[in-house]
């Protein structure tokens, strides 16, 4: 999958929108008012459908059907071919249309409760997402507040299930505080024959959301109470940015040491990290990592960085930072 936003070749616009303030990545078309899921699909150029089509291989005397393998395609736009292939899947794969995935999100977060903040697609449309801001906030300490977001993503290439990720965003610095899907209960729906039935089971999803955000709130507050000296910060960052497995990988080692050094600097000087009650804490160390990933990766374009922090190396690093922080808290308990 290309690590860039899908560009609609008919209109020449990126497949993305946003409401409220411009997001940290600065991408997308601004809407004046909060969007419904239907409006979000249109604003992000996602109002198309995918289909599962038989797959053939060319041979010297014609074409031969490939058993139990299918191409997932969407209609072409502009200069694209009539059918754009997004991925190859098996017989049991059930496509889930963008409007169906977004409608599921309507039921999960409540039509009148959440604000759809942004939506878009990566690559040629292989992965689509919608980000919703939930009511309420997490007051970590003093004026340090974190907004609650959910990120729903759906793949059309067979690479992943429908997923809902918890993506709180720290207001003072717009750091996306990602944790791994494996942390606590998760909302995942595989592309199987009963996918639509499973999408209808929203009561369980609502329970998971409430419990997970309560747990996340408690972890963030515990981080702000946990003091770290410089040596413990370095030990924490060594686990977040482990050395490469190959001892001969000098480039990887140099990059790792640079990441540790910059994250250590941001522990002390990062945006919001000198606030009363934040300075010198595990919360500051964790946000030093998230600020590095979100805002300091200067060699990446904004859309490459967006892909990385939600699905790629950036996501894995921040998930590891959260996991290592919770490990420290457990040891201290």
Describe how the helices and strands are arranged.
Elements: E1 7-8, E2 13-14, E3 16-18, E4 29-30, H1 37-43, E5 51-59, E6 62-75, E7 83-90, H2 98-109, E8 115-122, E9 127-141, E10 144-155, E11 162-166, E12 169-170, E13 175-176, E14 187-189, H3 195-199, H4 202-225, H5 230-240, H6 250-269, H7 282-295, H8 302-311, H9 313-332
Parallel strand pairs: 3-4
Antiparallel strand pairs: 1-2, 3-8, 5-6, 6-7, 8-9, 9-10, 10-11, 10-12, 11-14, 12-13
Features:
single chain; 333 residues; alpha+beta; 2 domains; 9-stranded mixed beta sheet; 3-stranded antiparallel beta sheet; globular
Assembly status = single chain
Radius of gyration: 21 Å
Number of domains: 2
Could you tell me the number of beta strands? 14
The string of secondary-structure elements, in order, is EEEEHEEEHEEEEEEEHHHHHHH
User: Which stretches are low in confidence, meaning pLDDT under 50 for 5 or more residues running?
Assistant: none
Tell me the structural class: alpha+beta
Characterize the main sheet: 9 strands, mixed
Into which percent range does the helicity of residues fall? 25-40%
Annotation field: number of helices: 9
Proportion of residues in extended strands:
25-35%
**Shape verdict:** globular
Average pLDDT works out at 85
Separation, N- and C-terminal Cα atoms = 42 Å
